[in-house]
């Protein structure tokens, strides 16, 4: 494997990781905004809001397995 091949693999891994972070960020932002709208509209207690937001983010992080290595695409 030459230097240019290693650079291509690194670029793919960085791109895949960046895309995954953006998806994670989008999911968390949507969850927090949705919970905020529902709780403010319904007038439910703030403590319950924090539990729902924290539980949702925790559940998402456990579901996605954040420590798994991002698989690089197959080599050409």
Overall residue-averaged pLDDT value: 84
Count up the helices. 2
Largest sheet: none
Query: What overall geometry do the principal axes of the alpha carbons give?
Result: elongated
Number of domains: 1
What share of the residues does DSSP label as strand, in percent?
under 5%
How many angstroms separate the termini?
12 Å
Poorly predicted regions are: 72-76
Helix proportion range:
over 70%
The radius of gyration over CA amounts to: 18 Å
SS-based class = mainly alpha
Total count of strands: 0
SSE string, helices as H and strands as E: HH
Please give the structural blueprint.
Blueprint: H1 3-42, H2 46-64
Report on this model:
Helix 1 (3-42) runs antiparallel to helix 2. Mean pLDDT is 84; it is low at 72-76. The chain has helices at 3-42, 46-64. Helices cover 78% and strands 0% of the residues. It has two helices and no strands. It is elongated, with a radius of gyration of 18 Å. With 76 residues, the chain is mainly α. It has one domain (3-64).
Can you summarize this structure?
Keywords: Membrane, Transmembrane, Transmembrane helix. This protein has helices spanning 3-42, 46-64. The protein is mostly helical.
Characteristics:
76 residues, mainly alpha, 78% helix, elongated, disordered C terminus, transmembrane helix
